[in-house]
Design goal:
The chain has 15 helices and 16 strands. Helix 6 packs across helix 14, helix 13 packs across helix 15 and helix 14 packs across helix 15. It folds into 3 domains: 172 residues, Spore Coat Polysaccharide Biosynthesis Protein SpsA, Chain A, CATH 3.90.550; 187 residues, Spore Coat Polysaccharide Biosynthesis Protein SpsA, Chain A (Alpha-Beta Complex); 71 residues, no CATH class. By secondary structure, the chain is an alpha/beta fold. The relative contact order is 0.11.
């Protein structure tokens, strides 16, 4: 067998108990009591072994275990990775009724960020288990334990993924393991969400499935919400993945009517300790016979090459797509024309990229008087098209969807395109961009959407409808619809709920109709 670069302990199980404990060359390891629950043995190994990868694998998948890929999959310590061989997950699809993230609609063909974990195959470093300052619950199913661990700690900095490469590419075996009951789902929601979501879950069951959940609500009330005292700062992360080669950077800046602010952005770039190679500026001015107003691009000397494009077609999606075609460097900084950042911005960015082995960095972006509220590096469903650093190879064959032009959602859609290529978006809290939110330039005009003449206005916005229809599960769409209705009903003053429900239905139908129209266009 090929020499491995990673030491591991493999727990082989039958779905309930551990049947054997193996090393990385699949030889038995003595000293562990078999027929224990998987969670209990994980706890024992974590106490006994320091900084060791522990892998679990269903006994029917052992021959398909892709051990040679593990050194690249588990490239740093703060990872929880698994793969479910089935289409469905342990938690029923109804979890979508109350989950609003893009982590549920998992792309099984690529490495995809999600807290939906599986007992089929996976792994975690013992350092992580030892740093969880709450007792491991031995009395829950292993799948429940894994989903709970990921859900609680993903926002704390535990990197969680569904990874098909855990198994060999030619495997076709499906493992049928028990799924969570409705009662377990309510328990999970009570332990991992605010208490109000339990009642919203029950309401969704009643509205969309005609099922009563009074018993499940009552039982769930006996459980407390789980608190996480997880502190990943104690884990010394040092990725073995090499994603940095030449460290060259191209900067993309769409601009319209912000001559002074763009100048300040260029000055910040010029003062960087690690200079960009190219700055790609796409200037828009829809006025007839207009010309560029950015004379300083040529009148001043800049320590980088400026690629200047002028267009009379307004729209940030179009402008960024023009710029994407002109990228030459290894990295691309997607920026806005009214931001400020310090002189070591790129240098510090590469430090985080090297430490975590990541290819997409989403920066902390705050307005001048806005206070920072989150301080941990973590996976995020957010993507800032004006505040992200992306490895350029990922930008091939993708672009900003023009259906979102002058609407909402183009950032999120672009981020989801990247995730569905097998990459993740990582938020870094220690690298700050100040977003000035500068006033619009004098020749910006309000865009009139085609649906503004409709007697019944679409709700939500057709672009938001398009985003959610594309990346939400069916249950997530239904849950969002009900929650939106309740919020709108509250805003209406609750004077006539029945009449408002009929009106909201018409608004939703309008949203779906226009969503389909802009999607085709």
């Amino acid at each position: 067998m090929k020499l491995l670069q990673i030491s591991m302990i493999i727990l082989v199980h039958n779905g309930k108990t551990v049947t054997s404990v193996l090393n990385e060359v699949l030889q038995p390891i003595a000293g562990f009591e078999l027929n224990n629950s998987i969670v209990k043995l994980l706890k024992i190994i974590a106490k006994k072994e320091t900084n060791r990868l522990v892998v679990w694998c269903h006994d029917r998948l052992l021959d398909s275990l892709n051990i040679e890929a593990f050194s690249s999959i588990f490239h740093h310590e703060s990872l929880l990775v698994s793969f479910n061989t089935n289409t469905d997950h342990y938690l029923p699809k109804q979890i979508g009724y109350i989950e609003r993230s893009f982590f549920l609609k998992v792309n099984k063909k690529v490495c995809y960020p999600t807290w939906l974990m599986s007992s089929h195959v996976g792994g975690i470093n013992t350092t992580i288990l030892n740093d969880i300052n709450v007792p491991l619950n031995n009395n829950v199913p292993f799948d429940y334990f894994l989903n709970s661990l990921a859900k609680n700690n993903m926002v704390e900095g535990l990197f969680c993924y569904s990874e098909p490469k855990l198994l060999k590419a030619n495997h076709e075996l499906k493992i049928n393991t028990p799924k969570a009951s409705k009662q377990m789902l309510f328990k999970f929601v009570k332990q991992h969400y605010k208490w109000v979501w339990v009642f919203l879950l029950a309401w969704n069951y009643a509205v969309f499935e005609r099922k009563i959940s009074v018993y499940n609500i009552i039982i769930s009330l006996f459980y407390k919400r789980l608190n996480s005292n997880f502190n990943l700062e104690k884990v010394a992360v040092n990725s073995s993945k090499n994603v940095l080669q030449e460290k060259s950077i191209d900067v993309i800046i769409p601009t319209i009517g912000r001559k002074k602010h763009l100048y300040n952005v260029l000055k910040d770039l010029a003062h960087q300790t690690h200079l960009p190679k190219n700055v790609i500026i796409v200037e828009q001015n829809p006025k007839p016979n207009s010309i560029s107003e950015l004379e300083y691009l040529n009148s001043e000397v800049w320590p980088f090459n400026i690629k200047h494009e002028f267009t009379q077609q307004p729209g940030v999606c179009n402008a960024r797509n023009i710029a994407l075609l002109k990228i030459e460097s290894e990295w691309a900084f997607l920026a806005d024309d009214d931001i400020r950042f310090n002189t070591t911005f790129f240098e510090e960015s590469f430090n985080d990229i090297k430490t975590y082995g990541i290819k997409i960095l989403n920066y902390l972006c705050l307005q001048p008087e806005q206070e920072q509220t989150y301080f941990k590096i973590h996976q995020t469903t957010v993507f800032g098209s004006g505040s992200s650093l992306v490895k350029s190879e990922l930008l091939e064959n993708i672009k900003f969807n023009m259906a979102y032009e002058f609407g909402f959602g183009e950032d999120s859609d672009f981020g989801m395109q990247l995730r569905n290529k097998g990459e993740d978006v990582i938020f870094t809290p220690n690298l700050k961009i100040t977003h000035l939110k500068a006033p619009f330039g004098g020749y910006r005009t309000k865009v009139k959407h085609l649906w503004e003449e409709e007697e019944v206005q679409p709700k939500p916005s057709p672009t938001v409808q398009l985003l959610y229809q594309t990346y939400f599960t069916k249950q997530q769409m239904l849950g969002y619809k009900l929650l939106l209705f309740l919020r709108q009903l509250k805003g209406s003053g609750l004077k006539n709920p029945v009449a408002y429900a009929k009106y909201f239905k018409k608004q939703w139908q309008q949203s779906v109709l226009w969503c389909q129209k802009i999607k085709k266009e």
